[in-house]
Specification:
Length: about 575
């Protein structure tokens, strides 16, 4: 934009005609900057913001307005209030989860630099809300009226919780207001005045000696927002493991609070609402802990059905789309009976190996009474962890084929570009950055060996990147062999990747139809059968995606009219700054 420039001539020596011409050009420039409707207000705001009170008075034609009036004029211009700045700061702090102090301070510094640049260009910034310093915004957060925060433990371990009876009435009015402004977004699932809630869990390592554990609450009535971090509310967080024995008391107390709210409901304003906790989104490890079960290494490894481990290797049959009759969900009454038998057996034979053998003879994996009672029947698989585990297993297949196609000499220098394994690893580093860096660290400590798996853990971002790059990785392997049996296996792995990506996409969807579920069943069945008949291995994560995910997708669709995507609130993955906010 070319701004007009005038010669520095005293206004007393300029003709009225020239003054009008200059004023017209200045207004045109102001219209470009501030808009046609605000061109005069923009000029006035710029003059008031960048000029002292005495100079402002003299600039007014004829000096007919006194110094007092000029000062009043400047004070009457729109100013950003502290409340606006506070709301902006808190919104930034909580946007997408809880922001760390360092990241927030960087945002404040960047904003100050931008304001300084705007001021240098005579752009008024006094009406723009500014971010508060971190100390002030934290003071504002702590001053917010909210329920009482209680410690989970008697010791000094940083672990805190809210009572459901306190936090739920604090949250739900927000969703009622959202429903009034957009009625179509609020779904009652055929039960008017009933809020369906999900209580999710996840844990994440903080360091080599600590871990983070969180429990979050989300409202399923807004199913399309339930997987957003903006609509998941912390009800418990602490620096402890998810299977910490001290937390068992909290889980039992939480179950009692859920039952109490389900029986009595809550009153918001002058209306009564029923409460129903319908889902407990978590990975299978935590589901097994809440259900009082053995780990996934047990003879019966799945929390979701009576699958026996030998069925994965000895069963000669595949899966047909929509076939759900071969394995049955665990019966709650059977769980209680087995738990009672195990308790009695432990008093007679406290040897751990004998106890697990006894549980296997009961055709069960139940060791204790479920911590959440019959709410164990509400457990559905959570797509994020199923997808990450399946993607990690698929990557292990690709990496194993790359190692098998490489000579021992190539494996000693795996990053050389001219070799099969070198091309493969460098492509991984370019397309799946974090996994590439992780592999480099592992390979520096131990060499690649044929038939040996590496310890890898995929995140959601890693799974997304692998879904986009697996065709390139498979094509690199195909180029380095002419053996027909190896080529058949590699083409099967490539086809496996296609159906894996499709199955994960349909499984993670929130808005689905009957046709979507049929597509999920077909993709999951083909994915399972390729593993079974072409790769001769069916890990538990493959069986879970192939069999359990479609079955649970139908259950979720029948209950809520949406897919399993509504069962994956953004949980965990928070750092210790969460505890400062709590």
């Amino acid at each position: 934009m070319n701004l007009v420039r005038f010669q520095k001539t005293p206004s007393s020596e300029i003709s009225k005609r020239e003054l009008r011409r200059r004023n017209d050009k200045i207004l045109k420039c102001s219209a470009i900057i501030n808009g046609e409707e605000c061109k005069r207000a923009g000029l006035l705001a710029a003059a008031a913001h960048n000029t002292s009170v005495s100079n402002l008075a003299t600039l007014i034609k004829g000096n007919s307005i006194s110094h007092k009036a000029a000062k009043s004029l400047k004070n009457d211009l729109p100013q950003s209030s502290y409340e606006e700045s506070k709301m902006k700061s808190i919104s930034t702090l909580y946007d997408g989860g809880i922001m760390s102090k360092r990241k927030y301070q960087k945002i404040v510094e960047r904003e100050r630099a931008e304001m300084k640049t705007l001021n240098s260009r005579a752009v008024p910034t006094h009406c723009i809300p500014k971010h508060l310093p971190y100390a002030k915004v934290m003071s504002a957060v702590k001053a917010v009226d909210r329920p009482c925060l209680l410690p989970c433990f008697d010791d000094d371990t940083p672990c805190y919780k809210y009572r459901l009876r306190d936090i739920v009435p604090h949250i739900l009015p927000v969703y009622l207001d959202m429903g009034e402004s957009n009625p179509s977004s609020l779904k009652w699932f055929g039960m008017p005045q009933t809020f369906q809630l999900a209580i999710g869990e996840d844990g994440a390592p903080l360091s080599q000696v600590r871990s983070m554990h969180t429990m979050l609450l989300s409202v399923l009535n807004f199913s399309e927002s339930v997987s957003s971090p903006k609509h998941n509310h912390i009800i418990m967080a602490g620096e402890c493991a998810e299977n910490d024995v001290r937390l068992e008391t909290y889980y039992k107390t939480l179950t009692e609070e859920i039952r109490d709210m389900s029986e009595n409901g809550i009153v918001i304003g002058d209306k009564h609402f029923d409460i129903k906790v319908s889902l407990f989104p978590a990975d299978q490890k935590f589901h097994a802990h809440l259900a009082g079960e053995l780990s996934n290494a047990a003879t019966y490894p799945s929390t979701y059905a009576d699958l026996k481990k030998t069925d994965l290797s000895m069963d000669k049959h595949g899966i047909l789309p929509g076939q759900f009759g071969r394995w049955k969900p665990w019966d709650f009454e059977h769980r209680l009976k087995v738990a009672a038998k195990v308790s009695e057996f432990k008093r007679q034979m406290p040897v751990r190996a004998k106890v697990t053998e006894f549980i296997a003879k009961q055709k069960s994996r139940q060791e204790f009474t479920p911590l959440v009672g019959d709410y164990v029947n509400s457990f559905l698989v959570e797509p994020l962890h199923v997808k990450n585990n399946a993607m990690c297993e698929y990557f292990q297949l690709l990496l194993g084929e790359g190692v098998n196609l490489s000579s021992a000499a190539d494996l000693k220098h795996p990053w050389e570009i001219g070799t099969c394994i070198g091309k493969f690893l460098n492509e991984v580093k370019a397309s799946i950055g974090r996994i590439g860096v992780k592999l480099k660290g592992i390979i520096n400590q131990q060499s690649l060996v044929k038939g040996k798996r590496l310890e890898l853990r995929f995140t959601g971002e890693d799974s997304y990147k692998l879904a986009r790059s697996f065709p390139n990785l498979a094509s690199i392997l195909v180029q380095h062999t002419t053996d027909s049996s190896v080529l058949l296996r590699l083409h099967a792995i490539h086809e496996l990747g296609i159906h894996l990506v499709n199955a994960c996409a349909w499984m993670s969807a929130v808005t689905i139809t009957e046709d979507t579920i049929c597509k999920l069943e077909e993709a999951s069945a083909i994915y399972f059968n390729i593993h079974k008949f072409y790769l001769d291995s069916v890990p538990l994560c493959v069986w879970t995606l192939g069999y359990v995910a479609p079955m649970h997708a139908r259950i979720a669709f029948a209950r809520f009219g949406c897919g399993l995507g509504c069962t994956q609130p953004t949980v965990g993955r928070q750092n210790s700054s969460m505890l400062r906010v709590l």
